[in-house]
Amino acid sequence: MKAARRTKLIGEIETLAEEAIFGTLSETYRCCGNPNCRCHSGGPKHGPHLYVSYRGALGKTTGYYVPLAVQEQVRRGIDAWSRLQAYMRELALANKERLIPKARPGRGKPGR
Fold first, then answer.
1. Is the pTM for the entire model greater than 0.85?
2. What is the 8-class DSSP label of residue 61?
């Protein structure tokens, strides 16, 4: 990896880290607490409600509903997390290849 690409990746990682949010987005539809509402008698349910799920510290899946006022920021944060992971993988692969270069063609297997 060229130094310019490495520098750009690190800059992108720093930027994305400022807004990244860990989790997976889903939209749910729910019944409300009013038993006379249309949602309890076969009508459409209320929603969509944005929900973020993730694995907690003990490995158990958990999550939270996202308030309407911050849904766009949360969507961007989840997207930032995904791009952050991709950039980190690229950087980690470059680090590995810098430390352990690929075998040159024409060289046999070790031990032969």
1. no
2. E
